[in-house]
Amino acid sequence: MHVRCPDRLGEDLYRQVLELMAELSPVVQALPPTAALVELKGALRYHGVDAVRLGEVLRVRTISRLGVDIRVGIGPTITVAATASGRITGPGGVLAVTPGQVTQWLGPLPVQALHGIGPRQAEILRDYGVHCVGLLAALPPATVQRLLGGRAGRQAADRARGIDPRPVTPRALPATASVHRAFPRHALDGAAVRAALLDAVVTLALQLRRRGQAARALTLTLRFAGGATWDKTRRLTEASAHEDDLRTMAYRLIDAAGLQRGRITAITLKAEDLVAAGQVAEQISLDQAREARLAAEEVSDRIRARFGPDAIRPATTLLRVG
Q1: Three-state DSSP class for 204?
Q2: Cβ atoms of residues 105 and 97 within 8 Å
Q3: What is the structure's pLDDT at 36?
Q4: Is the domain of 152 the same as that of 300?
Q5: Is the bond into 33 cis (omega within 30 degrees of 0)?
Q6: Do residues 279 and 229 both lie within one domain?
Q7: Count of domains in the chain?
Q8: Residue 133 is inside which H or E element, if any?
Q9: How far is it, in rounded angstroms, from Cα 235 to Cα 181?
Q10: Residue 37, SS3?
Q11: Handedness of CA 148, 152, 156, 158 (dihedral sign)
């Protein structure tokens, strides 16, 4: 199954779409910035339904939970599935091509529609009268190699015939997570900037805990009126996904910016060098206040899981930020 998300989909939403895919199959290959592959062989046996049904379930979940309408292509190979997802026009949908339909379905398509054929390759093929995939499949592989080059020609000839031995290889996104906050107007008020930063800290920490990850470093990026930017990265003493630790480091970063009269239009807080939360050693703390805050954090997570991420927010974040 090849899945295409809408163009310019934010990284956070893209990660959430990948997580929904992982609920259907453990073999998911991220294809940044907005696509992914899902191996369905084991999933079909596990769920007891056909591939089209799984594609429809995934699409319903992304729309209902995330508001993201995806396009799903299903086929016996990566090339066929990716070509199918690219042939869906308008709003998202599901298009499945069975093994017995591959040759008949690919044949009439224009050569540029075949996944893996770039604009330059398509132009060369059209110059020689090869306008559709069926004509490309009918050419001897040696002829295609002379036109497109050795390796590229072999791949194009095979894929036009529906041959693509590549497996779906599990691959996650790079280990980062970020939260962006924009101001409805240029912000000069230090309190408003810190309120937005605190809101970003709370949201970022919650994302990390939901994903079972912890950050080893934080990067703060400030965007100013006129397009100028400032960014700085600092490493945490130890990897953490707790609001206390991220907030302390975030405030150090904003203090390092030395803001006075800078007109800020947006801030971005990024957690970097992420590790699995299970790899982080939890130190026994004698600080009763910190232990109480961590216990309150666990309770807050349960409330947010039940009633939504905005069920609990710091009071200072009620200032209007985007």
Answers
A1: helix
A2: yes
A3: 95
A4: no
A5: yes
A6: yes
A7: 2
A8: helix 133-138
A9: 22
A10: strand
A11: positive
Residue 79 has which token pair? 């090339």
Structure tokens at 64: 């209902």
| Last residue in a domain, options 99, 129, 160 | 160
C-alpha 204/C-alpha 274 separation (Å) is 12
- The 10s digit of each residue's pLDDT in 87-104 is 997 777 999 999 999 999
DSSP 254: H
Residue 19 identity: E
Give the separation between CA 96 and CA 66, rounded to whole angstroms.
24
**With left for phi above 0 and alpha for psi between -120 and 50, is residue 90 left, alpha or beta?**
left
Q: How far is CA 251 from the centre of its chain?
A: 28
For 42, the 3-state DSSP assignment is helix
The two tokens of residue 206 are 């919650």
Same domain as 133, residue 13: yes
In a domain, residue 97? The reply is yes
Q: Do 194 and 86 lie in a common domain?
A: no
- Average per-residue pLDDT for the chain: 85
Helix axes 150-160, 141-148, angle to 10 degrees: 130
For residue 93, count other CB atoms closer than 10 A to its CB: 16
In a domain, 170, yes or no: no
> Over the stretch 260-319, which tens digit does the pLDDT of each residue have?
667 889 999 999 888 877 766 555 555 566 667 667 667 777 776 766 666 666 655 444
Residue where a domain terminates, one of 160, 185, 215 = 160
Residue 236 in domain: yes
User: How many angstroms from the chain centroid is the CA of residue 203?
Assistant: 17
CATH of the domain at 68: 3.30.70.270
Structural domain including 287 reads 176-318
pTM of the model: 0.59
From first CA to last CA, the distance across the chain in angstroms is 35
Is 104 in the same domain as 191?
no
Residue 75 lies in a domain: yes
